[in-house]
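Title: Prediction job returns without error message
Component: structure pipeline
Severity: low
Priority: P3
Assignee: unassigned

Description:
Job completed but the reporter wants confirmation the result is attached to the right record. Sequence as submitted:
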Amino acid sequence: MNKFKILRNASLIFFIIIFSGCEKERVGLQDAPDMAKVAVMNVVTPNRPSSVSASSGLLGYLLYIDNNLLYSTALIPNKTTGYFLVDPGSRVLKADSTQIGTNVTFPSATVSTVNLQAEAGKFYSVFFTGKVQSPETVITTDDLTRPAAGKTHVRVINLSPDAGAIDVAGKFTTASGTAPVLFSNIAYKNATAFTALDGGFYRLEVRAAGSPVALGTYTQDNQIVPLFIPGSSSRTDFSMNLEAGKVYTLVIRGYLDPSIATVGQIANPLSVGALINVYF
């Protein structure tokens, strides 16, 4: 029996990115209720290989489930696989790091092995965070319940290794006054529950837990995967269109204090991006 299949459906889109290198059978999202659904997101931070570039020799991950290669294309930072089907039970997800190249095969080495207890009918996300050659992993169980009319469901995951516990505050872009805290005291490698919010455009801030002062992040407005690219300058707030009928994960990643000008040091500063888990 195949251990995995790729999910795709015209009315429900999961995690946006489906890698074209995989030729496994496509199935509808309502099919295979006896299978588990897993998505992998890579938000690791590379080291700076030169004084002028953070992307030369970019590394990604070749992914395996129970030693079966998922995709011929490596998963680069700030990208996700989308949900794929796996048999329920004890599964092993392996990540081998390799240099990204076009029509070139580079050596690879295993940098992470993740044991996954998968239950039929449930959705899971596996996040790789930290440094690219020694990643840490976070596994979440994803509640993809349909939002009520006019509502969106949002959760936040803190994948910044040095930012400490954080709050996320926000308000509609048309609202006045101080933004209230929407998600509080999120420790590193922790995720909140999905929370129902009114759909619309928000101004969001990342704060140290319990502080009224916003942290600077390199976040572009409406930074939603697949356009999960840090901005060029620090700012204390940013806009995000959290549309009604969609389920989002806000990913806080990168370093609050990166050595962005030093060769060999971490290259990505603190930023926030959104994944659309599903829309109805």
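Comment from assignee: result matches the submitted record. Residues 64 and 70 are 5 Å apart (CA to CA).
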